[in-house]
Amino acid sequence: MDPFLTLLHSFSSSLSDTELSSLKFLCRGKIGKRKLESVQNGGELFIILFEQQLIASDKVSFLEGLLESIKREDLVSQLKQFVEEREANAPDDQLDVHEKRLQEAAFEVICENVGRDWKMLMRKLGISEVKMDRIVAANPFNLREQLVQSLREWQKWKGKDAKVTDLIKALRGCNLNLVADRVEQKLLLLNTGTR
Question: Is this structure's pTM higher than 0.85?
Answer without folding.
Answer: no
